Amino acid sequence: MARVILSGRDFLYLPSLAGEGKGARIGLACLIFCAVTISPWHGAHAQTKAADWPCIQVLQPELSVGAMWSGPDPTAAAATWREVPAVMELVRRVAPRRVSVEEASGEVHRFLAAAPGDRNVIATQVFAGLFESLNAERSAIIRGIRRYGARQAVLTERIETARRDRDALDRDATDPKVRERRVELEAQMTWDTRIFEDRERLLPVICEQPVLVERRLFALSRALAEELN
Amino acid sequence: MNMIVRSAIVGALGLISASALASTAYISNEKGNTISVVDLDRLEVTQTIRVGARPRGITLNKDKTLLYICTSDAGHIEVLDLASLKVVRTLPSGPDPELFILSPNGRRLYVANEDNNMVTVLDVERGAIETQIPVGVEPEGMGLSPDGKWLVNTSETTSMAHFIDTDTLKVVGSVLVDNRPRFAEFTPDGKQVWVSAEVGGTVSVIDAQTRKIVHKIGFEIPGVRKEAIQPVGVRITADGKTAFVALGPANRVAVIDTATFKVERYLLVGQRVWQLDFTPDQKLLVSTNGASNDISVIDVEKRKVIKSITVGEMPWGVAIR
What we know:
The complex is a heterodimer.
Chain A: E1 3-5, H1 15-18, E2 35-37, H2 75-80, H3 85-94, H4 101-114, H5 119-168, H6 176-226
Antiparallel strand pairs in A: 1-2
Helix pairs in contact in A: 3-5, 4-6, 5-6
Chain B: H1 2-21, E1 24-29, E2 34-39, E3 44-50, E4 55-60, E5 66-71, E6 76-81, E7 86-92, E8 97-102, E9 108-113, E10 118-123, E11 128-134, E12 139-144, E13 150-155, E14 160-165, E15 170-176, E16 181-186, E17 192-197, E18 202-207, E19 212-218, E20 234-236, E21 242-246, E22 252-257, E23 262-268, E24 273-278, E25 284-289, E26 294-299, E27 304-310, E28 315-320
Antiparallel strand pairs in B: 1-2, 1-28, 2-3, 4-5, 5-6, 6-7, 8-9, 9-10, 10-11, 12-13, 13-14, 14-15, 16-17, 17-18, 18-19, 20-21, 21-22, 22-23, 24-25, 25-26, 26-27
C-alpha cells in the first residue's frame, strides 16, 4: 500500500505518486520537502532522506567500487585505462545506455576472449573505465534531479504565495481592480499547479535513472568478472 | 540382454537418486508479485507463479509440501501447494505481514505485522489467530530456538530484540541492539541469537540465556562505503561453525567463523542482497538480490558463488526443499 509520510512542516501531497485519482488536487497547501515512500524498495527502508532529494530511492551520491567488483585491485588501472586505446574504445562503445545491457555484455565477453596479454589486467582496466564513466554519468543525473527538485520547490512556494495573496483580497469587493487581481492570481495558480503536476508525473521515471545506471554497471562488471582467470 | 536390463536399472536408479538430491528453491518476488521456482540442479527457473500483492517472507510447512507466503499488501498469508503449484488456501495474518517463522511442530506460524506493532500467533491447522503479542515499532525479524521455546522478534524502529516465551506468549525481556534490526537467527545449539542491524551495520550476538550481547560483529569491505554495508539476512550452518550474513547494497555476503566471530570472506553476489537459505544438504546457499533481480547460488564448502540466476522483479524471500 502506498504510504505518504510527511514531516512536520511538509504538507503538499503528490497525487501522481500517492496513487490518487486525476481529480485529486494539489490543494492549497504546498510542499517544501515531502518524503514519499511507496515501499522499502531500493533500501529506502534503511536510511534517512536527504532534504533536497525528491526521489523515493535512497540517495547514494557515489557508487562503491567494492560493491561492484571483487577482481584485482583497480586503483592503478583507474589511472591508466585511458592509455590503452582498445580499452578506451570499448568503454566508449559499451557505456552508453542506448546500447542494451545484453548487447554490451556480449561485446565485453567477445573483447576479452580475443584480448591479447593478461586477461585479468585488461578486464580490470575495462572495469576501471566503466566505473569512472558510469559513476560520472550517474552523478550528473543526480545533480540534474536535485535541480529538478529545487525548481519544484520554487514552484510550490509561488503557488502558496499566490494563494495567500488571493485570500488576502476581499471576496466581496466590487472594485474591478481587485476582482481583476483575483482572476489573475487564480489563473496563475491553475497554470503553476498544472506545470507542477506534469513534472511530478515524470518524477518516478527520472528518479529511476541513477538506479538503471548502477544496475548497468553491476551487470557489465559481472560480465567482466566472468572472464577473469 | 541382461546387460541392457542392468544398465537400464542402473540408469533409472541414477535418475532417482539425482532427482532425490536435486533441491528446489522458491523465491518471492516483491514487485513482480510472483514466486519463482528454481531447479538448483540445473540452476534455472522452471516455473513462475502469480500470487497476491507484494510477497515477501516465505517458509515451507513441516513436511515441505506447502509454501506459506506473506503477501504483505494483500494482508494475508497464501498457501501454495507445491505439487499443483496453486494457491489452495489463505490464512489470516494481521495487517502487513512481512516475515514469519514456523514452530518446530509445524502447528503455529509466528507472524511479524509491520504496520500495527504486533506479532500474530496463528494456528495453521484451524487457520485462526490464537493471539496477538504487542512488541516494538515495526516488527520484522523472527527467530525461534531449536526447541521452539523461545521466539525472538526484532522491531526496526525501536531497535530491540524481544524475547517471547512461546508457552505464555508474553514478552519476557528485550535487548537493545543497533539501529534497525532486521533478522534474528538462533545458533543450532540454541545458545546464541544473532541479530542483524541494517542501519547500525552490525550483527549482535546475544547469549540466549542471560540475554546479554556477548559480541558485536562489524564489517569492513575495501572499496565499499560504510553506509552501503547493511546487514539483513543471517544463516548459520547446521554444525554451528559458519555464519553467512547478507549485506544489502554492499552486494556482498559475509562468511563468518562463529568461534572467533571473524569475517573470513566477503562474497560478491548481486545488488541489494537481503535474504539467504541453505539447501537441505547444506551444500548450497542461495541469496536473493533485490535490485539486480536475481539470486546467487553459493557453494558453502568452497565459499564461492557458482552462478547468479535471473528471477522475477525484486526478489525478497527464499525457501528451499
